[in-house]
Amino acid sequence: EGKVLPGTLLKIYATYPTNMNLPGKIRDVLVKASGEMSHQWLRWETPLDHQFLSAVSSLSIQSVHRQQHAIFDLTKKHPLIAVKYLSKIASVIIKDAEVLSSFDGEAKVR
Questions:
Q1: How far is CA 2 from the centre of its chain?
Q2: CB-based contact 110:84 (threshold 8 Å)
Q3: What is the pTM of this model?
Q4: Cα 71 from Cα 79, distance rounded (Å)
Q5: What b/e string do you get for 43-68 counting C-beta neighbours within 10 Å, with b at 16 or more?
Q6: pLDDT per residue over 90-108, tens digit each?
């Protein structure tokens, strides 16, 4: 019984993330529920999935300030949904750092 309400609230949030006001207590319930139901939560589709995937994809193509800002804005507004994409975001950032590192190495060699 205690898990039904948090799980239901999390599913409602996944379905309508932009329509929910998240005061502190509700946010805490959602964070706890997403942790307890992480396997299901990570598979649920949200209306914001396309925006996150598009922003990450754009960032992987060209790391410009505008694309970085788009991801930061989405992450700030919807941190719980952003968690679903942390591994993809981290992968893009690591690849970007590797490219920058290789450019630094070439500049030092010359």
A1: 27
A2: no
A3: 0.73
A4: 11
A5: ebebebeebbeebbebbbeebeeebb
A6: 888 888 777 666 665 554 4
